[in-house]
TrEMBL record:
Organism whose genome encodes this protein: Harryflintia acetispora
Matches recorded under InterPro entries: NqrB/RnfD (IPR004338), RnfD_bac (IPR011303)
Class of enzymatic activity (EC top level): translocase
EC numbers for this chain: 7.-.-.-
Compartments, record wording: Cell membrane
Membrane topology type: Multi-pass membrane protein
Annotated family: Belongs to the NqrB/RnfD family.
NCBIfam families membership: rnfD
Main location class: membrane
Protein purpose: Part of a membrane-bound complex that couples electron transfer with translocation of ions across the membrane.
GO terms (BP aspect): electron transport chain; transmembrane transport
Name of protein: Ion-translocating oxidoreductase complex subunit D
Amino acid sequence: MAEKLIVKSSPHIKSPVNTQRIMLDVIIAMVPALLCSVFIFGFRALLLTVVCVFSCVVFEYASRALMKRENTISDLSAVVTGMLLAFNLPVTFPFWIAVIGSFFAIVIVKQLFGGIGQNFVNPAIAARVFLLISFATPMTDWVIPKLTNDGIALVSGATPLPLLAQGKMLMMPPYHYMLFGLRGGCLGETAILALLLGGLYLIVRGVITPTIPVVYLGTVAVLSLLFGVDPIFHLLSGGVVLGAFFMATDYTTSPATERGKVIFALGCGLITMLIRVFGSYPEGASFSILFMNILVPHINNLTRLTPFAAVKAQKKNKAKEGQA
């Protein structure tokens, strides 16, 4: 009987869910937004996404090989990073600069810190901010989808947030246009309904909890009212919905506890609205998530749960000290 006993360290109960399965769910959740971007912005949206995904996979394979580490391209995390990076770029963005962004995301932000699970900020967001600072002109070269008798035509123009900042209220797209993606913006952030569908899929599958998206979007709405601006407009414009469901919820760069997630999401919403209303940049979603990513270790320390037995032991020790 003793021969059948297996001595093994915990955990003794293991889930069949692995990194590849989680990443595959995220990819599936992003497909509706990708299809909408191709329908709205044309075939180039798909090409840009393929370039980003292919570049991220190649850079991950090459960097892991050069560092003599086990290759991890099969976990699909590089594919997710490539899709998210493409979602944060305008459809007119040059392919060669997108490759530079992929290099920065995978090699600099992810692999130099040890790979998946070791990066302290979201690679796609860090790459977007890097490209915005380094290549500001192509990163703000927007096209606006216009409905015509022949379908959707693309014309140069500003996105809703800059129009608001410039006071051009008459040029603002109506809510239903913004809901279905008929506005200027990065190719993966405009179709709000598709993003909500993908986010709901992730929640139902148990990949993410609703805490961060709900608190983040709720904070944006409440602060919009407090600042005297339109909450619906601020929820439908920019990349706040994309960020709330697909980037702020990243396992590695978001807090581990529910209390921590609430604090994290509140910070994201607050910084987003401060930048949008009072800052020089019209959009603040990427900067807010990047900044809060840096604070995640401190948030985890502040909200770390103490085991029940440890609490009882602490009380007993304090009681003994008091008696002494």
